[in-house]
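Spend some time on this chain, tokens included, and walk me through the fold:

. . .
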Amino acid sequence: MKKKKKKNIIRMVDVTNRDGVQTSRVCLSKLQKTMINIYLNEMGVYQSEFSFPMTSHEANYIDANLQLVHLGVLKPIMLSGWIRAIVKDVDAATKNTKIQNLHLSISTSKQMIEGKFQGRVNKKDVVKMMTEAVDLAKKRGVRHIGVNAEDASRSDLDYLVTFAKAAKEHGATRLRYCDTLGYDDPFTIYKRISYIVDKVKIPIGIHCHNDLGLVVATSIAGAKAAIDSGVDAYVNTTVNGTGERAGNADLVSVILALRYSSGFAGKYKLDPKINLSKAWKIASYASRAFGIPIPINQPGVGANAFAHESGIHADGALKDRRNYELYDFEELGRGKPEVIDTGRKITAGEYSGIKGFRNVYERLEVKFDNEKEAAKILELVRYANIHNQSPLAKDELKFISTHPEIAKKLFTMSL
């Protein structure tokens, strides 16, 4: 009997906690980054690039999130760190943290090799640096080793093939093709990734930016190239598209495009773990945490995504929603009324007392065994408000009461 050929799969790798937080003028606290990881896990996202293991103030955050993995709170999502593809970074990351999945990044374009390294290294040196870093990561027991070709879209194709072959031969499990400046379009990225994968059968990560407004289209075209060439595709996204300069590929938009566009729907296999019903929740939380409103016309989660006003459209939508809607708002976790308090409101902040604090938690249906336990959580909530510099969300309050020791670690930084 002929064995059925395995269908390659498109998975989501969210980089909100790495590329998103690098965005100028915005940031997330360690608690907010942890909540993003929890929501990504609930949404069925395959991987979160959640940290910079070389950065000292990330150490407790990394340890706390790895504890959540051990407890089963962050499962099955994969947590990975980002470092430069140099021996020094691998050595420090593996000594200072227990991180088991790493992405190693180095520039591959002529522009960046000459413009960033200023004549100190050449193309051969870049490959040598990368392979030595991969070798050490493998020796140190890193399970998943991804190699990033920064500025791949402006790199010589045959050099990228050489780079990818060397990475694979030394034990890298994935090549990330980085369209670092948003230079590619859907047509060029398809040709380029097809060429690389035809020469080197290695799973491909697609990391695109939105400098030319093409990021979602380019990302899914890159995924199509990988799948058509016989390898799995890992599309890099951020929640609400928050990222450097003009941003990254928006998580929800990419999933909707893969699930409902005419060229992908029913033809390509999207990770079956994806749970779109969590889309509204994570988009709303990230908007609040980043302090960036969701654009009114954002696919799926924007205020106007399911709004109809013109007579023809409103009439058509009322007769049959499929006349003017490709997918249902309920699928994205929308449609439930949101309660807004307009009367007396007791909040928990850095100066809260025990009575007001207990009132807040009683409304969340969280009970404490005794006053000592309540006082302990109150102290953590006070720290959390200082940590976030904003009022806490309900899920943040629940997280603190459920995992107080891990929360304490998140609020503590080491120098």
Observations:
- The longest helix spans residues 371-388.
- The first strand starts at residue 9 and ends at 14.
- Residues 354-410 form one domain.
- The chain has two domains: 9-290, 354-410.
